[in-house]
Specification:
Layout: E1 5-9, H1 14-30, E2 35-41, H2 46-52, E3 56-60, H3 71-74, H4 76-94, E4 98-101, H5 105-116, E5 121-125, H6 132-137, E6 143-146, E7 160-162, H7 169-172, H8 178-184, E8 193-196, H9 204-219, E9 223-227, H10 230-243, E10 247-250, H11 256-262, E11 265-268, H12 272-281, E12 285-287, H13 297-306, E13 312-313, H14 319-331, H15 334-346, H16 352-364
Parallel strand pairs: 1-2, 1-4, 2-3, 4-5, 5-6, 6-7, 8-9, 8-11, 9-10, 11-12, 12-13
């Protein structure tokens, strides 16, 4: 059977949206005539990111529980029923052969409704500790594509397909040379290079850790590529300028493939997509898990690497005071640095988007 129509549902965070778009791109490449419709939650970031990537999206009126006592929590059952009704209406009109759920509130409504309408469901789980949505939906799914081994603890083993997470093509297959990366950012190849980032908005603990360590990095001749995010940007810029440190400060780095290529090591959060990028790029890393991430999933992601001696973990609380010494000890120890690079690269899963797309095409048949 030819694949004609697919719904991709979910969102809420970049960690859900960007893999979804990568899967859509792979489907269009492998089955060019396929019509793809995204279904997200009104007011969430997918409503802007998906159209920017060239795909149509429909928004459901759905949200989760608010923290503490709230009138909106009392109306949750009614909002959920409305979202299920909206999801059914979209599915009946579009008539997809397969529904892909990537996590998030919209994913729950659409995949659950689709399963009840006997449409095959494929789930894509990005983290080593699944979110509540995918754990709930797993009983209705035909396939569950995962990014970590040993996920049978959470999902039926017969449904699991190990695929890894979709990663941006320019990082997975078009990574520049170290020399090209160093040239772009005007860095020397004679001194170590540290890349530090905490996501598009930055990470307070990482930013403070880098700021406190700048005198130490200066003393040891370490160059820094520092993505601060908007809130910390001007402060970081002033600190570097006033002290003459060898640091390149960016509010946001668009050429992340060049940044990875240039770096000898990386300091970052432990989101699922960040870890997958570090794996395919083969970068020695210090991971600072976000402690407020749902169900502490970032720590569990990082633990998958550290337990295999493929990365170091530093707690969010320790980061501001201990990051500098940890970086110095690691970046000066060439054998350890090389071992970390080798082990993290061994954990990489390449062409995840294409593998997931193949599963979707199989389900359609």
């Amino acid at each position: 059977m030819t694949l004609n129509k697919v719904i991709i549902s979910g969102g809420g965070t970049g960690g859900h949206i960007f893999p979804a778009i990568a899967i859509a791109n792979a489907l269009k490449e492998m089955s060019p005539g396929t019509e793809i419709l995204f279904v997200g939650a009104k007011g969430k970031m997918e409503m802007g990111k998906v159209p920017a990537a060239g795909y149509n999206i429909v928004g459901l009126e759905i949200s989760g529980l608010s923290s503490g006592l709230s009138i909106s929590n009392l109306t949750l059952p009614f909002r959920l029923m409305k979202a299920l009704w909206q999801a059914r209406k979209v599915i009946k009109k579009f008539k997809p052969q397969v529904i892909i759920g990537v996590g998030g509130y919209a994913s729950a409504a659409v995949a659950f409704t689709g399963a009840k309408m006997n449409i095959p469901i494929l789930l894509q789980e990005q983290n080593s500790y699944p979110g509540k949505t995918n754990r709930f939906l797993s009983r209705y799914a035909s396939r569950i594509c995962v990014a970590y081994p040993d996920m049978q603890t959470f999902f039926p083993a017969s449904k699991i397909v190990y695929t890894g997470n979709p990663v941006r093509k320019e990082i997975e297959h078009l990574l520049p040379t170290a020399e090209q990366g160093q040239h772009l950012f005007n860095l020397s190849n004679e001194k170590p290079i540290l890349l530090a980032f905490g996501g598009s908005q930055g990470a307070k603990a990482i930013n403070e850790g880098i700021e406190n360590a700048l005198p130490l990095f200066h003393k040891h001749g370490i160059q820094v590529l520092w993505q601060t995010g908007t809130p910390f940007y001007q402060r970081a810029l002033n600190t570097v300028k006033n002290n003459g440190y060898d640091v390149k400060v960016f509010e946001f780095i668009r050429e992340m493939n060049y940044a990875y290529a240039a770096a000898d090591m990386v300091v970052a959060r432990a989101g699922a997509i960040t870890i997958s990028e570090l794996q395919v790029a083969g970068k020695a890393s210090i991971l600072i898990p976000l402690p407020t991430a749902a169900e502490n999933h970032q720590y569990k992601n990082a633990l998958q690497l550290s337990s295999r001696d493929a990365a170091l973990i530093l707690s969010n609380n320790d980061c501001p005071t201990k990051l500098g010494d940890t970086v110095i000890n690691m970046i000066k120890d060439k054998p350890t640095l090389h071992a970390l690079e080798t082990r993290i690269k061994q954990m990489a899963a390449f062409d995840a988007a294409k593998t997931i797309a193949s599963e979707v095409i199989t389900l359609a048949g």
